[in-house]
Amino acid sequence: MINQFHPAVHNGDAIGEQIASIRSLLLQDGYKSEIFSVFPDDAYKAPVRLFREYAPYASSENVLLLHYSIGYPDTVWEWLRTIPDRKVVVYHNITPPYYFAGVNGAYFLETQRGLDQLLQLRQLAPYAWSDSAFNGLDLEARGWHDVKVLPIIFDRQRYDVHPDLATLKRLNDGNPNVLFVGRCVPNKCWQDVILAFFYLKRCIKPDARLCLVGSDAGMQPYRAYLNALISTLGLSDVIFAGHISQAELAAYYKSASVFLCMSEHEGFCVPLVESMYYGVPAIAYKAAAVPETMGDCGLLILRKDFAAIAELIGLLIDDIPLRDRIVSQQKERVKVFEAEHVRVLLRSYLEQVLASGRGSL
Fold first, then answer.
1. What secondary structure does DSSP assign to 40-109, as a single string?
2. pLDDT tens-digit profile of 274-289?
3. The domain made up of 2-153+338-355 is a member of CATH 3.30.465.10
4. DSSP summary character for residue 217
5. Distance CA 334, CA 273 (A)
6. What number is the average pLDDT over the span 103-108?
7. pLDDT in tens, 120-135
8. CA 250 to CA 278: how far, in whole Å?
9. DSSP structural state of residue 214
10. 124, 185, 289, 302 — which has fewest CB within 10 A?
């Protein structure tokens, strides 16, 4: 059996979708596969079992994929020490704690705890995979060797939905829309997106609109700062959409003129791939895993020169041949993250684990 574990598994978030996609590939390849969690979600798209029910499945012949993104409760560590399964950490990155200092004390402590616990995980899981080579650096710094890159799987079926018509009608009014999608957290630098938009609206496209999509739960001080910045700049036409449905998300992408990512810390950045799929030219700050995800498509910026970025946005809106070339390259890039491509990597990595025996440190 090839089983998977994560403390919380939900539809819609990147890790939850990745777990479901991996299980689908495993079943197609003839493996038996179950998902285990501390907090099973009855609404999840695949069956999820309580991790305390693992005993009948435990075997030294099994492989257990341990998805890791913020840390495990003490009871999980006790459980992991008792089961004989060969363990692989699947690392989804932990945002550096300093981004949450003064914004959310609980997040600050949890992220620090998660990084500290990687040392414990190293003693239990000799094999390591990560969403990106950038993520793998965290693991290499804590003693793992030969970290494999298993990208996030892009499931086209998830995005094959009819866009919300009311949202589409509201946004498709002939004015350019600048879009960013991602949680409203400090490392994603929404303030820098706003500053670039300020120059765009003031100097180049006065009719432009900025659409910021993502939950700000637990980030009230950061959101208050963003509101104050918008007020100070005298900006209008800024939409905070919050957490939205898949149909509404499709409408935002389909009405977007440019996708702008100014994030300083991304372990992968799924919205970049979403923008590629929907045919929205992407501009992104060259940081963390963003260059890996972008590959040789889209436009990477090296400095946060907001006036220059605004000019670049205006160029992508007006220069249709340039826009079309970028969109065409991006659509090719999406194929790298589709299931059949990642499936080859998954098979190879599993064969190495299975062939190596039980593995020890």
1. --TTSSS-EEEGGG-GGG--TT-EEEEEESS---HHHHHHHHH--SEEEEEE-----GGGGTTT-HHHHH
2. 999 999 999 999 999 9
3. no
4. T
5. 6
6. 97
7. 999 999 999 999 999 9
8. 8
9. S
10. 302
